[in-house]
Hints:
This protein is of the alpha+beta class and 142 residues long.
Amino acid sequence: MNDSIAKTLRQITELHSLEDILNTFSQQKVKTTEVNAQIESLRSQIPERILRLHDHLRHRGKRSIAEVRNGVCSGCHMQLATGSVPALKRGASLQTCDNCGRLLYLAQENPAQTDIQLQRPPVHTATPRKPRAGKKQAVMAA
Length: 142
């Protein structure tokens, strides 16, 4: 993945956590100037286009970043377009979900789990078919 893309995704994730902390502090009426300063510093480092997308989604009460597992956006739980996952793997540019608009990043795969799944042989068992319910079987009279 491109370093600048990875950096932007980390910054958005950190911005989310700081905003959540700020909301908690605001509800408890605790001094929030230090958190506000960290948020403003972080916002100045994020590209304007991405910041507008983040602000739009946060205003609607949503997270602006979502993990992709098995080709599914964790934000809206919809299957991504065919070309989105390979584009994420290449890491050439930031990708957004066509359904919910969140910025996407790939989940870290667990290689041990993948190996286990590949080693397990497929199970093929033939089961006898049952007659359909509600249908009478023809009885042949001799």
